[in-house]
Amino acid sequence: MNMQQKPQSAPSASLLGSVPRTAAGGEITVANLSKTYGAGEFAKPVVQNCSFTIERGKLTVMIGPSGCGKSTLIRLLAGFERPSGGTITIGGKPITGPGLDRLVVFQETALFPWMSTYDNIMFGPRARGEDTPETRAFAEALLQKVGLDGFRKKYPSQLSGGMQRRAELARSMINKPDVMILDEPFRGLDAMTKRLMQEYYANLYEEFRRTTFFVTTDIDEAIYLADRILIMSNIPTQVREVIDVDLPRPRHVEDITENDAANAIKMKALGLLHEEAMKSFARGSKAAADFIDAYARRMVKD
Amino acid sequence: MAAAGRAVSSKVASFILGDDFWRGVVSIAAFLVFWEIGSRSQAWFGFAFPWVSQVPAPTAVLQEMFKLVQEPSFWNSALLSTVRVFEGFFAAMAIGIPLGLAMAVSRTFYGITFPVFEVLRPIPPLAWVPASIIFWPTQELSIAFVTFLGAFFTIVINVIGGAQAIDVRYFQAARSMGSSTWDIFRRIILPGTLPSIVVGATVGVGITWAVVVAAEMISGGGSAGSMGGAAGGGLGFFIWNSYVGGSYTQIVAGMISIGIAGYISSAALRKIGQWMTPWLSEN
Questions:
Q1: Same structural domain for residues A84 and A187?
Q2: What is the mean pLDDT of the segment spanning A56-72?
Q3: In the list A61, A276, B102, B123, which could disulfide-bond A234, CB 3.0-4.6 Å?
Q4: Percent of chain A topping pLDDT 70
Q5: Which structural domain, as residue segments, surrounds residue A245?
Q6: What is the pLDDT of residue B1?
Q7: Are residues A33 and A143 in the same domain?
Q8: Which of A252, A269, A289 is the last residue of a domain?
Q9: Are residues A96 and A215 in the same domain?
C-alpha cells in the first residue's frame, strides 16, 4: 500500500451541518479482509487479504477489472454480508451490520416506486422520527441542489434515468451519513446524461465533503471525481496500487481531458488495469478480452 | 375543468374513430345476427340449425329483459346475489390479506400453514357446498361461506407472491436508512404488495360471482328462496327456477344479468385499485 498521502487537515463541516456520529467521523479501515463463497473443494475466494483505508472527508474511487469482486466489497462495507476473515472498522468501531453511518447508493435505482420524489427523500428522516422543520428545509435545499424542485410530487417511474439517480443521491445525503458508498451509480446512463450526472455529483461532493467510497469501471470518471484512486487486482481482489489525484477543485470535465497530470494518471492506471486484465485473461476470463483488445488498439493509435 | 372535459371527449372521439372500436362493433353485431338467424332457423328456413336453434333469439331475450327490469322480484334476486358475493368477498379480503402477508413475512408461519393451505386450495369451491350446508346453521351462511372460499385462495396466493417478489434492495435501503421492522412492514411490504392485492381482488370477485350462482342453484336459493319461491333466492336460483318453469328466455336473460353484474364488479374493483396504486398508472 502506498504511504505517500500528503498531510491534510479534514475539511470543515459543511454549510448544512454535518455532526459526526462517530468519534473519528467515518474513516473506514479495512484490514486483511477476506471473503470466500462456498466451502471445501468448491471454495471460491473473491476477496483475499485486502487492506485499505477510506480517508475521512475524501473521495476514494475504487476501479478494477470487471468481475474482480468490487460488488462483494461493497456488500461487506455496507454490512449486508459478513467477512470470512479480517476486519472492517468505521471510526475505530467494527462493522457488524447495516448502519446509518454508511449509506449505499445502488447500481440501479432503488427508489421506492410507490413514493413521490419528496417522500423518497424524506424516507430516512421519517423512519427515525425526524420529520422536523430542519430536515424539511434540508430536503428543500437538496431538491434544489439536484434540480428536482419541480418533480417533488412525481413518482420514480415518471422521472428520467438521470433524475432517478439524482433523487437517490438526495435520499442518501439527507441522512448525513458519515460515509457514502456508491456502487457504479451512473452505470447504464447514456454518455451525455452520465457526464451531466458526474457534474452534479462533483458539485454535491465539493459542497458537503462527505467521506465517500465510489466504485466505477470508468477511468475518466475516476480521475474527474477522485482524491484517491484504488486500483484493484484481478480476483481474488486486493489493492494493486493507490494513486493520489492532486487536481484542484472545483474541477471541470474539459480541464481533465487536457490536463497533463490527469493524462499521466490515466496512462498509469490503464497500464495497471491492463496487467490485471492479462492475468485474469490467462485464467480464462472472457470479460478481460475486450479490455485487452481496446488497450492494444489505443497503444497503436498513440 | 373544461380542458379536462375536452381531453376526455377527444379521447372518446378518437376511440370511436379508431379501428379497434369498429372491429368490436362488427364482432358483436355479427354474433347477434348469427344468433338471431340460428335460433329462428326453424321458422324462417324450415330447418333447425344445430344447437343455436334451441336457444331463444336475442330479440326475445331483450324483450324478456325489458319486462324483468320492471319487476321488483328480479331486482330482489340481483340484490341478494350481490350481497352474498360481497359478504364472501370482503370476508376473504379481511382474512386473506393478513394471512398472506403473515405467510410471506414469517418463514416459520409459512412452514406451518402452507402445506394445509396447498391441500385445501385445489378443492373446487363447489365441492364444499354439501359440507358447508352441514357445517353452517343457515343456508345463507353456507352460500356466503362457499363464495368466501372462491375468492380466498386466489387472494392469499396473490398476496404471498406479491410480497415475496419485492426487490431485496428496497429492504436493504430501508434498513440502512434506519427503518424498524414495523416501519419496513408499513412503508415497504404493504405498498409493495398492494398491486398484487388489487389483482387478487379483481380476479377473486369474478370467481365469487361464478361460485355464488352455482351455490344458489345447488342449495335451492337459500332461506329466502325456499320461502318465497321465485320471488327471492338470488340470480342463480332465478335461472334454475326459470329452467324448472320452462322459460328459456328468462334463463338467458338471467345469464346475461350475471355477466353484467360480474363485469361491473370487476370494473369497479379495477378503478378502486388504480386509485389506490397511482404510481402504476401515472407515467
A1: yes
A2: 85
A3: A276
A4: 91
A5: 28-101+178-252
A6: 46
A7: no
A8: A252
A9: yes
Phi-psi region of B169 (alpha: psi -120 to 50; beta: other; left: phi over 0): alpha
Number of domains in chain A: 2
| Co-location of A41 and A92 in the same domain | yes
The overall average pLDDT reported for chain A is: 83
Residues from A in contact with B at Cβ < 8 Å: 78-80, 98-100, 102-104, 106, 110, 112-115, 123-124, 127-128, 155-158, 171, 175
CB-based burial label for B242 (10 Å; 0-12, 13-18, 19+): buried
Q: pTM for the complete prediction?
A: 0.77
Contact A157 B279 (CB under 8 A): yes
pLDDT tens profile A34-46: 888 888 788 888 8
**pLDDT number for residue A188:** 81
Residues of A in contact with B192 (CB under 8 A): 114
Where helices occur in chain A by DSSP H, the ranges are 70-78, 117-121, 123-127, 133-145, 161-173, 191-208, 219-225, 253-258, 260-282, 287-301
Instruction: For residues A39 and B24, give the distance between their C-alpha atoms in angstroms, rounded to a whole number.
Output: 62
Is 70 exceeded by the pLDDT of residue B44? yes
- Same domain (yes/no): A190, A160: no
Does A72 reside within a domain?
yes
According to DSSP, residue B126 is labeled G
Nearest-Cα distance to chain B for A191, in Å, is 24
Mean pLDDT (chain B) is 86
pLDDT of residue A2: 43
CA A209 to chain CA mean position, Å: 13
* Residue A147 placed within a domain: yes
Distance separating alpha carbons of residues B245 and B183, to the nearest angstrom: 60
Indicate whether A195 and A71 sit together in one domain: yes
Architecture of domain B59-281: Orthogonal Bundle (1.10)
Q: Considering only CB atoms, which chain B residues are within 8 Å of A98?
A: 172, 175-176
- Is residue A299 included in any domain, yes or no? no
Model confidence over B188-240: pLDDT tens digits? Answer: 999 999 999 999 999 999 999 989 888 888 776 555 444 444 334 788 888 88
* A189 & A169 share domain: no
Q: Where are the alpha helices (DSSP H) in B106-180?
A: 107-120, 129-135, 139-164, 168-176
- Shared domain for A120 and A238, answered yes or no, is no
Looking at the DSSP bridge assignments, the partners of residue A214 are A61, A182
The pLDDT tens digits of the residues spanning B87-122 come to: 999 999 999 999 999 999 999 999 999 999 999 999
Chain A contact set for B180 (CB, 8 A)? 127
Residue A175 has its nearest CB partner, among B169, B177, B194, at B177
Question: How deeply is B140 buried, as exposed, middle or buried, from its count of CB atoms within 10 A (0-12, 13-18, 19+)?
Answer: middle
Boundary of a domain, candidates A212, A232, A252: A252
How confident is the model at residue B161, as a pLDDT? 94
Q: Which residue of B has its CA nearest to A177?
A: B177
In a domain, A293, yes or no: no
